[in-house]
Amino acid sequence: MNPKFTTCFGLIRHGKTQWNLEKKIQGKNDLKLCGEGVMQVQTWGKILGKTHNWDRIVTSSLKRTRETAGIINKYLNLPMEKDHRLDEQDWGVWNGKKRQDFMAGQLKELERQMALGWQFCPPGGEDRLSVWKRTRNAFEDMAVRFQGKNILVVTHSGVIRIVIYGILKRKFLPDERPLLKPYHLHLLAWDNDDLVIKSLNERKC
Asked: For 36-77, what is each residue's pLDDT tens digit?
């Protein structure tokens, strides 16, 4: 039976990595934060400690989210755990590439894939719909285990976008208006047997 109580979630992405600065696709590559990212995250713990009474931090299994959460937790001092279902989408053979690195045929394939919406799937990678299913399952499990609590989830920009677009039933097509601001806190809840949005772009971290 699904839970019938409210569990709240705050979603943030990890701090910057060197590949973020170089505008490379990270996917499931296990990268650490760069120096700028460490300094960036050091301010987040102070901010997040003033926004809500968090009870726990849950991260993806990748190094950049775990490092982000560890720095934040110096200010919050909460139980922490990881869940691989919150990992970034696997971009397959496109991991590590910049858009300008794509050959003509690859660029055409990238554009074709982007037009597929939820069926977007990089060669050798993972489709968006699969990411949505696994992350939604993770949130439902957290709602059961931590019922009535406030959970800070440190994950990836791609995952956050997929979760929010899934809730809103967006088509995930290139011509849709962007909704999310980078490095902002977004608030969700598991309420009445479903994942719902409480607030988007709540505050910049």
From this structure: 999 999 999 989 988 789 999 999 999 999 999 999 999 999
List residues bridging with 59 in a β-sheet.
82, 154
**Hey, what are 149's tokens?**
């609590």
CB-count exposure of residue 89 (10 Å: 0-12, 13-18, 19+): buried
CA distance 158 to 27: 9
Answer left, alpha or beta for residue 148, where phi above 0 means left and psi between -120 and 50 means alpha.
left
Confidence of residue 103 (pLDDT cuts 50, 70, 90): confident
> Among all residues, which ones are annotated catalytic?
14, 88
Question: Nearest CA to 125 among 29, 61, 32?
Answer: 29
Residue 201 CA to residue 85 CA, distance in Å, equals 23
Residue among 111, 114, 97 at smallest CA distance from 24: 97
The CATH architecture annotation of domain 7-204 reads: 3-Layer(aba) Sandwich (3.40)
Instruction: Confirm if 146 and 164 have CB atoms less than 8 A apart.
Output: no
Burial class for 36, CB neighbours closer than 10 Å (0-12, 13-18, 19+): middle
Over the stretch 3-22, which tens digit does the pLDDT of each residue have?
456 899 999 999 999 999 99
Two tokens, residue 88: 């970034």
| Nearest Cα residue to 59 out of 33, 23, 22 | 33
Residue 112, token pair as written in the block: 């074709």
